[in-house]
Amino acid sequence: MTGNCRFCQTPLKHTFVDLGMSPISNAFLKPEQLNQGEKFYPLHAYVCDNCFLVQLEEFETPDAIFSNDYAYFSSYSETFLHHAENYTQMMRERLRFNSESLVIEIASNDGYLLQYFQKQGVRVLGIEPAANVARVAESKGIPSWVKFFGTTTAQEIVRQEKQADLLIGNNVLAHVPDINDFVAGMKIALKPTGIFTMEFPHLLKLMECNQFDTIYHEHFSYLSFLTVENIFAYHGLTLFDVEDIPTHGGSLRIYGKHDSNSNYEVTDRLNNFRHKEIQAQLNRIDTYLGFAEKVRSTKRQLLQFLIKIKSQCQTIVGYGAPAKGNTLLNYCGIGTDFIDYTVDRSPHKQGLFLPGTHIPIYHPDKISETRPDYVVILPWNIKDEIMEQMAHIKDWGGQFLIPIPQTEVVS
What we know:
Layout: E1 14-22, E2 41-47, E3 54-55, H1 62-65, H2 78-95, E4 102-106, H3 114-119, E5 123-127, H4 131-139, E6 144-145, H5 151-159, E7 164-170, H6 179-189, E8 190-201, H7 203-208, E9 221-222, H8 225-234, E10 237-245, E11 251-258, H9 268-279, H10 291-311, E12 316-319, H11 323-332, E13 342-343, E14 361-362, H12 365-370, E15 374-377, H13 383-389, E16 399-402, E17 408-410
Parallel strand pairs: 4-5, 4-7, 5-6, 7-8, 12-13, 12-15, 13-14, 15-16
Antiparallel strand pairs: 1-2, 2-3, 3-9, 8-11, 10-11, 16-17
Helix pairs in contact: 5-6
Organism: Limnospira platensis NIES-46
Protein name: C-methyltransferase
Domain C-methyltransferase: 246-405
């Protein structure tokens, strides 16, 4: 990689993992596009030996990735909706909102979270760059600005006197190429007495559980607590609490404030968590350099299993069309020669084809029609929800296949 760390500007020279060439993970294809050329980009993650930020190069702009045809809608996961509702209740009890309080969510998607604050009489504002997704939130009565977040948008928030009592960013910090501009914008958009929370997949969990498929071009950064704490401190923001949460295979939720805000003390939980990451040696470059071989081993194991199944003339289909699934399939070279089709609950993906592999996407009812021997769960982070929804495959002896952290069959 020719370039510098997107946070500290240190020259990057260490590979974390190289997943070859891959298309943009949410660049689903329409039938008429199947015979046209596709763009593939290097999916090569590097780690900075100064701040230990794991990161990708920027090959496509956020404008190109989060276009008007952006296909991810948060509300199609019951697991994620329950998570959002529980968070809303917890924060209401913790912060004692009133009718004058304002909650702003960055990357608010289709209003999956802000709807719960709104139902409780709290003022809300969503910031969402994908116009087609923001329109869904607007249809629910949730005010939404169709903008990317950074210092420019934050300054507009100040001009309109809309600084946040609670500023939320769930699964967005990894998505921004200019992480310094983004965090600087958070400082501007937050009231002096306000707090922010952010959720993001935990790099330590990614490494421990071999979650390499969460690496794709939308995710510019892969974050440990130690690195995130340094990034926010650089911009005058103090983290005062952190907790493990189960979303996306293991994430962190951080709580932060202005350095000048004395209303919240740093918790023992945060201090213990920092110590845990130091014990895991996330502040040493050697810790990151053995991950690539784990990934190659998983690829070989999965392919050996699929080859065995197909040699026995058994059928395999997929469940879900998540971004992580497209990383897995393209890296492993798994197309329609292995997986006949996949299904997804989102009507925005049905009738389209996965990028790179050209696997068709159908309604989940297709599985009952074809009665496959195996269903590969591509969004393995919500495998329990999916196995409950699709429990009827057992009626014909069908089995679930979980590919991450290692190939596992569940009857």
